[in-house]
Design a protein that fits this description.
- By secondary structure, the chain is mostly beta strands.
- The chain has one domain: Macroglobulin (MG2) domain (Immunoglobulin-like, Sandwich), CATH 2.60.40.
- 9% of the residues lie in helices and 52% in strands.
- It has one helix at 2-12; strands spanning 16-19, 23-28, 31-37, 44-45, 49-57, 64-67, 72-73, 84-90, 96-97, 100-109, 112-123.
- The strands form two sheets. It has a six-stranded antiparallel beta sheet, with no helix packed on it. Strands 4, 6, 9, 10 and 11 form a five-stranded mixed beta sheet that branches.
- A hairpin with a 3-residue loop joins β1 and β2.
Length: 124
């Protein structure tokens, strides 16, 4: 029953999603999640290692899990910005669905679990 309630809550959560030229941002109440590609690119290139990061506001990066084919989270120990999660990936044909690469961003904030899906354009 808890799983069903959680699923219904996630589906009905109101959020704002805006796609800008170089990054993708989700805002929900007090939290903000921004996905940003290396060098302000607008798409991930197929078969090329790509660096990206998530910049979070009012979310503990230690409480975040990322799900996506081939994602590697980079060490953030020496980084000046503790509100970002540095990652790399190499996208292949199998990871592309309808021209996009999907990343699930999950986090826990108190007793609340949230999941957001980022669909990042892939350049062939």
């Amino acid at each position: 029953m808890k799983s069903l309630l959680l699923f219904v809550f996630l589906i009905t959560t109101t959020l704002s999603f805006s796609q800008e030229a170089t990054h993708f941002t989700i805002k929900d109440k007090k939290t903000t999640i921004t996905f940003e590609l290396e060098n302000k690119a607008t798409a991930i290139e197929l078969y090329k290692e790509t660096k990206f990061r998530f910049i979070v506001k009012n979310i503990d990066p230690k409480m975040v899990t990322l799900v996506g084919r081939g994602i590697r989270i980079q060490s953030n120990e020496n980084a000046m910005d503790t509100n970002s999660i540095q990652c790399t990936t190499t996208v292949d044909e199998e990871a592309v669905v309808d021209g996009n690469y999907q990343i699930l961003f999950n986090y826990k904030n108190g007793n609340e679990f949230k999941t957001y899906r980022f669909l990042i354009p892939v350049k062939r």
